[in-house]
Known about the structure:
The protein has 116 residues and is α+β, with helices and mostly antiparallel strands. The chain has helices at 46-56, 64-71, 76-88; strands at residues 4-5, 14-15, 62-63, 93-96, 99-101.
Amino acid sequence: xxxxxxxxxxxxxxxxxxxxxxxxxxxxxxxxxxxxxxxxxxxxxxxxxxxxxxxxxxxxxxxxxxxxxxxxxxxxxxxxxxxxxxxxxxxxxxxxxxxxxxxxxxxxxxxxxxxx
Length: 116
């Protein structure tokens, strides 16, 4: 096997003599069962916790998985359903596929694609 690295368009080769590899820890797994918070005080319920997160960073567009990981007590499928329901009711803003932001945030549509 040739230890040289070749870049397309580059006529020279470089010998690789050293390689550093960093292994990152994986994200924690999401729970397999969601915590039922119907009997939790209103200020501590999932909906309020999500609103607090969205309002704390009003310009951020949160992905469903990031919100679920941050909360840590909800399955991804339940998080999808709840966020979609809250967006349909106007409680939060859906800015794209599986992406949400604080109420009143307007998504900026992408410009039309150019056909070449």
